[in-house]
TrEMBL record:
Residues 344-603 form the EAL domain. Its EC number is 2.7.7.65. It comes from the Bacteria. It comes from Amycolatopsis melonis. This is Diguanylate cyclase. SUPFAM superfamilies: EAL domain-like (SSF141868), Nucleotide cyclase (SSF55073), PYP-like sensor domain (PAS domain) (SSF55785). Residues 44-94 form the PAS domain. The lineage of its organism: Bacteria, Bacillati, Actinomycetota, Actinomycetes, Pseudonocardiales.
Length: 605
């Protein structure tokens, strides 16, 4: 159109048009422009009206003040009322809570200030259901006058999506069985409590149900689940409401509690004791009154004194100590004790490398005949760790750590192999004067299913008769439910190995007839021997020892003793019928070449 009129006005053929001729031309231009603009405006208006009416999204047109002028059917259906009831209401009136109203007010201000679009998820009033989660968009439409703005509100239903997201979020951070926050949620809460600027005291409590496996396996997993729910409820009842108490289920039968604020250890301990008492009260399920006990590890410190990992580790160590101390009790984390334990644990962690690097050696203790102390009855072989930094370590310093780290069997195998190698060397040098070697089996090795094969392989390797080996064990190994200890001992006895049982009382001695143990020697140990290491032993101690020795003779057993300190103690034992003994009264220990000299001075018969 513009090109056409430009051409018409420009084509004057060199003649200047007077105003009365130019005016009709300009009026014709204006009428043509208005006709075309009106046609396009009407079409756009019709299309907008159709879209507005048919849109599945709720739409409300408002005046510059924010009062709703028109609302479509979709918005009425979304809010549970007719569109007519929405006309005249202010946009902010649709908010369900004060917070939502404030957000709508803020959105209107931003749109008026020039922002193209404002979007939020919020709660709107629903005429029948009360509240509705909706995705709300506020936009601006140009007004009739330059600079004027008409707000438009667009609303889509987000209720089901929001509830689904909330449900998934809840499941992601909560334990489905107990409804408590889960381990992930607890870690997040703890890290927030220890975040930058934290000035509170922090108490972290780990709780573990004692013997839960007995309940779960004995009464069924369903009952076990109900017990865990009961535990969760009792813990929540005690700790929630105290110092921002936060209770979570970590895994299995493990729970954790976080407290914040001005805390004293005594106050935290009181809450823990109350919780442990409540857990002891029976929960009645299916006719069973089920009471549970729990162990608890407690850490109380200022939030600025360490990170989450250190705090969690401290609580775990305290819980472990509580269980080691007998369960059903609490233990407060002790930094000084922890420092000592760290050294022990570091020691235990490097046992495997020390064995491979040749840091272990044999240490021997002679057993002599009490009737002829210059003759050896046997040589007891043990382990010594020649630590590059800590020096010589006796077995009682590292065997408990080996038990924890699973190194007991490798150490026991090495002890047996090296002991038999030494025995073969003695027999070559001393012939019949060479003593038998006695090896005390750690419990884990005694119950090992390959024990018989291991012993036979080493005897064959060193060309030794089985009679040259004495295997010493104790009550715990005999009664250990794992493995087939009795069968292994029977086979070893058939091979010719001499089995020795360490006893400290009548109950230990009676294991021999009860289980038909093929034992040939018993070794008196502990208080029953220590009782004679006094100037005047009590009559009861002598009577007890006499009864043990009499019973051992009835069972055709040879009787020895260990831990004998003095010659006077050895003499008393001999008078009562003990035939051999070892201990400081002879020699504490001998290593390497020293044992050869010892054998040379104390030949066996």
């Amino acid at each position: 159109m513009a090109r056409r009129w430009a051409a018409t006005l420009a084509d004057t053929k060199g003649v200047t048009l007077p105003p009365e001729e130019l005016e009709p031309l300009l009026l014709e231009v204006a009428h043509d422009a208005v006709d075309q603009a009106g046609s396009k405006h009407d079409g756009a208006l019709l299309r907008f009206t159709a879209l507005y009416a048919a849109s599945p999204m709720g739409i409300a047109l408002a005046d510059p003040d924010g009062d709703i002028v028109e609302a479509n059917l979709a918005l009425g259906q979304l809010l549970g009322c007719s569109p007519e009831r929405l006309r005249g209401r202010h946009i902010t009136d649709l908010g369900s809570t004060d917070h939502d109203v404030s957000r709508l007010e803020a959105g209107l201000e931003k749109v008026r200030a020039g922002r193209e679009r404002y979007q939020e998820r919020m709660l709107l009033d629903h005429a029948e259901d009360g509240q509705l989660w909706a995705d709300v968009t506020l936009a601006r439409l140009p007004g009739d006058r330059p600079g004027s703005v008409y707000p438009v509100l667009m609303v889509s239903d987000a209720n089901e999506l929001h509830l689904l997201q909330e449900r998934l979020l809840h499941q992601n951070v909560h334990d489905p069985l107990t409804g408590l926050p889960n381990a992930s949620s607890f870690t997040t809460k703890l890290e927030a409590a220890l975040g930058a600027g934290a000035r509170d005291d922090i108490a972290l409590i780990y709780l573990d149900v004692d013997g839960f496996k007995v309940i779960n396996d004995g009464l069924g997993a369903g009952v076990g689940d109900q017990v865990l729910r009961g535990v969760a409820n009792k813990l929540s009842a005690v700790f929630t409401g105290h110092h921002d108490g936060f209770v979570a289920r970590l895994s299995g039968d493990g729970f954790a509690v976080l407290l914040r604020g001005e805390l004293a250890a005594t106050e935290v301990v009181e809450l823990v004791e109350r919780a442990l008492e409540d857990l002891n009260e029976p929960i009645y399920l299916g006719g069973h009154g089920i009471g549970v006990s729990a162990s608890a590890g407690i850490v109380v410190r200022a939030a600025v004194e360490g990170g989450a990992a250190e705090l969690l580790r401290a609580a775990e160590i305290a819980l472990h100590r509580a269980k080691e101390a007998g369960k059903a009790q609490w233990m407060l984390f002790d930094p000084e004790l922890d420092a000592r334990d760290r050294g022990r644990y570091q020691l235990g962690a490097v046992i495997a490398g020390a064995l491979e690097n040749g840091e272990f050696s044999l240490v021997y203790q002679p057993t002599v005949k009490l009737a002829r102390p210059d003759e050896l009855a046997a040589v007891n072989a043990g382990l010594r760790w020649n630590h590059p930094e800590k020096g010589e370590l006796d077995s009682d310093e590292f065997y408990p750590l080996a038990q924890t780290t699973g190194m007991t069997v490798p150490l026991g195998r090495w002890l047996l192999a090296e002991s038999l190698a030494a025995t073969a060397r003695w027999r070559t040098r001393f012939g019949e004067a060479a003593p038998d070697v006695c090896v005390r089996l750690p419990t884990r090795l005694a119950i090992d299913p390959d024990l018989v094969l291991l012993v036979k392989e080493q005897l064959d390797k060193h060309q030794l008769p089985a009679q040259a080996l004495r295997l010493c064990t104790d009550r715990d190994s005999v009664l250990d439910p794992r493995g087939e200890v009795l069968d292994s001992f029977a086979v070893l006895a058939d091979l010719g190995a001499q089995l020795v049982l360490t006893i400290s009382g009548s109950a230990d001695l009676e294991l021999i007839p009860q289980h038909r143990l093929p034992v040939r020697h018993v070794i008196l140990s502990g208080p029953v021997v220590d009782a004679l290491d006094t100037p005047e032993p009590t009559e009861a101690a002598i009577r007890h020892l006499t009864q043990l020795i009499t019973r051992a003779r009835e069972l055709n057993l040879r009787i020895g003793a260990e831990g004998v300190r003095t010659h006077e103690q050895a003499a008393r034992l001999r008078q009562l019928g003990v035939v051999a003994a070892r201990g400081p009264f002879v020699s504490d220990s001998a290593t390497g070449d020293e044992v050869d000299e010892l054998i040379a001075r104390h030949p066996g018969s």
